[in-house]
Amino acid sequence: MRKHVDNSGTLGAKRQMSAGEILDAAAQAFSERGYAATSIDDVADVLACTKGRIYHYFRTKGELFMGIHHQGLVWALEAVGPTAERDDLEPKEKLREMVRRHALHMMEHYTYMGPAQFQIEMNLAGEGRNQDAAMATILTMRRRFEDYYVQVVKDGMASGAFRETDVNLATKAMLGSINWMHAWYRPGGPREATTHRERIAAVLADYAVGGLSA
146: burial class by Cβ within 10 Å (0-12, 13-18, 19+)? Predict the structure, then answer.
């Protein structure tokens, strides 16, 4: 007698996609096509699955975009926060390590961080949908991340390590140079080597500190 196997909730032998895998695929699609030109079908094509699997976790394309943005910020805060909150580092040393970790994060999660930089597309993702709470959370996380940099720049000015300047403008210029990595960094070949990524991160860190040093 043939034994019955309960496959409810699955599609045959294929396992069900996780929300993380769906976000990975959506991040790839959005980074290649942009928000407006990407459809749920495009994300399903990356996964080689049906749209139903995606709708199990995300009801709209906007929810996918917000999920990507949120996850990118979670990783960014995890990368920079522990260093920013240390009390045993001088401002220059702290800023250098923050930028280094920030840059490495940008390279590790480059498909997530590209879409996360486009404010216009984030606004499009919230149109006509109940995304107010998600957007408020993302904006709060963005401010927290930027505040880490604002504080270390202020501390450096107070100690005399950094020259006096407009703190907010200097911070935005510095963050812009790091966040824009999504426009030119692509993994593959020798660029995947850890030493190559570390070299890029070190150059950006030196540039940030050098631009503020007294």
Answer: middle
Query: Residue-wise pLDDT tens for the chain (214 aa)?
Result: 333 333 334 333 344 568 999 999 999 998 888 888 889 999 999 998 988 889 989 988 888 988 999 999 999 999 999 999 999 999 999 999 999 999 999 999 988 887 766 654 555 565 545 567 888 898 899 999 999 999 999 999 999 999 999 999 999 999 999 998 888 887 876 556 788 899 999 999 999 999 999 8
Kindly state whether residue 53 falls inside one of the protein's structural domains. Answer: no
pTM comes to 0.83
Integer Cα distance of 202 and 39 in angstroms: 38
Within a domain: 38: no
End-to-end, the C-alpha distance of the chain in Å comes to 83
The type of residue at 123 is N
Q: In total, how many domains does the chain have?
A: 1
CB-CB contact of 75 with 67 (8 Å)? no
Beta bridge partners of residue 162, listed in sequence order: 213
Task: Give the integer Cα–Cα distance in Å for 9 and 52.
Answer: 12
For 59, other C-beta atoms within 10 Å of its C-beta total 13
Q: Which domain covers residue 67, as residue numbers? A: 59-212
CATH number of the domain where residue 141 is located: 1.10.357.10
